[in-house]
Model the fold of this input.
Amino acid sequence: MSRTAQAGTLESMDCLVTVTEANAGSGISLGITGSSAARFKTAMEKKVHEVLAAMGVKDIDIAIQDNGALDIVLGARVETAVKRLEREE
Amino acid sequence: MLYLPGNNPNMLTRGYLFGSDGIILDLEDAVPMREKDAARILVSKYLDLGEFGSCEVTVRINGVDTEYWKEDLAAVLPYKSLSGIRAPKVDTPETVKILDEEMSAIEEKNNIPVGHTQIFCLLETANGIWNAYDIAAASKRVTAIIPGGEDLTADLKTSRSYEGTELEWSRRMIVIAARAAGVDPLDTVFPRITDDEGLRRETEFIKQLGFAGKSIIHPNQIPVINAVFTPTEQEIEKALKIMRAAKESAARGQGAVSVDGRMVDAPVVKRAEYVLQRAGITEVD
Done:
């Protein structure tokens, strides 16, 4: 079974990020749902990819449930979730 | 200074808008163990990119008796928006020295002038109160000492009363130690967030003791504390009168002078200066 990790909450101005390990070469699979997803999906995707690139992550599945998280919150939650997943390995 | 939970984006975003002089981004008691990593990352992002207006920004780290404090310092010290750290459970001057050493190493690594980041010490045990002066004088970084509330009460083996009798001597000790060492005495929080009258009474009491400010846990407490600490128009007018008279007397080469039938000498001028400083008046015409 694939390992997963989570960070964040569903409180106002936060988001819940769930990351699941992926096979080498499978790339980044990203799904965003929630209050800001319809309007800001492209910007949010860009932020997530920036954080993953800075952390050197190439293969991962990410699901984000957003409740109005600012850019810095989204970045912080993704970073925390990935670090938690790495710690489990 | 208003405590904001370090893992709460809503409060970290809006906290500086409530009108306190400072905010304390809390990595300690407001954050459960399993969320320490998340709060540390979130707070560091806010320090890097967040908005804080004119608020003084500090971070309460975890105590040196925990596994978290070094990572806390490494995560927050590199950012310019940080004025200082609040260190919990400082019992002895050695605790300050341990912090000072670690902070200097991080500052050096990040090209920050060594000694730039201040330390606000929380004295939360009987031992800490007893060592108050030595703690306040242990490093140039120490800017303020603050008595604990709940932890100190527990260490004194008593309970928190409405009147605060159990903390009275500790508060007096903090003021004397802080003033002797040339740092600020800041008071602990008032825990009953809906009791404005109790908060006002306690704030008037601690201001009279000599405290320079008070920590708070809810934005609703800010107007009550500001009302007590902000000088009234009468106080400002009197202070201005004293400062003008002192200025004129100095220009004439005289020492003491009389204002409204009262002798004005150096201590009176000093008090007047302090009133004007609290009112935000820096120059007297």
Chain B has a mean pLDDT of 93. The interface with chain A takes residues 8-10, 13, 37-38, 41-42, 44-46, 48-50 of chain B (CB under 8 Å).
